[in-house]
Amino acid sequence: MPGQDSAGMSAKKGAPQESEGGAPAGRNGKAAAQGVQPSPSGVNQNYLNYVKSLAPPTKHFHNCFRAFIVGGLICCVGQFLRTEFEYLLGLTGDELAGAVSMALIFLGCLLTGLGVYDRIGKAAGAGSIVPITGFANSVASPALEFKAEGYITGMAAKMFTVAGPIIVFGVLSGTIVGLIYYFL
User: Fold this and answer.
1) Using H for helix, E for strand and C for coil, what is the string for the chain?
2) Which of 39, 42, 111, 116 has the highest count of CB atoms within 10 angstroms of its CB?
């Protein structure tokens, strides 16, 4: 258009000019002239459709089923340990619950150290993260990863990067609940 610079502004007053399609020329004017309509939020809908066409479809039911199966198998292992500790060692109550928890944490750390738990996690997703073995994995995995940096500055410092906030929240909420029960 005569009297217009490259940004679509009028040479006379600096006012935006309209393109052939009636949309303002300039920032979105070229896109509007080509038939690409940006959404009100500024997201190009054609690009989103293109990305969606290339992305593989998610398998929600399949992922949930695998998480359910693996989480259930971990719980079955815990129940098996509970039964065996109860009959073989004669443990009851809190001693039995503590022994089962320690055994599951040990198994989670052992499988993490052997590299097996990472493969289980990739296949099962949340089914392997939610049980106590997933908590053991979240403590042991950074410790193994940063072992080369030294025992103090690497392993000990990085061990609780993932699980640290969970531990702090658990201790604080347990303390608050304990104080409430104490004063009531």
Assistant:
1) CCCECCCCEECCCCCECECCCCCECCCCHHHHHCCCCECCCCCEHHHHHHHHHHCCCCCHHHHHHHHHHHHHHHHHHHHHHHHHHHHHCCCCHHHHHHHHHHHHHHHHHHHHHCCHHHHHHHHHCHHHHCCHHHHHHHHHHHHHHCHHHCHHHHHHHHCCCCCHHHHHHHHHHHHHHHHHHHHC
2) 111
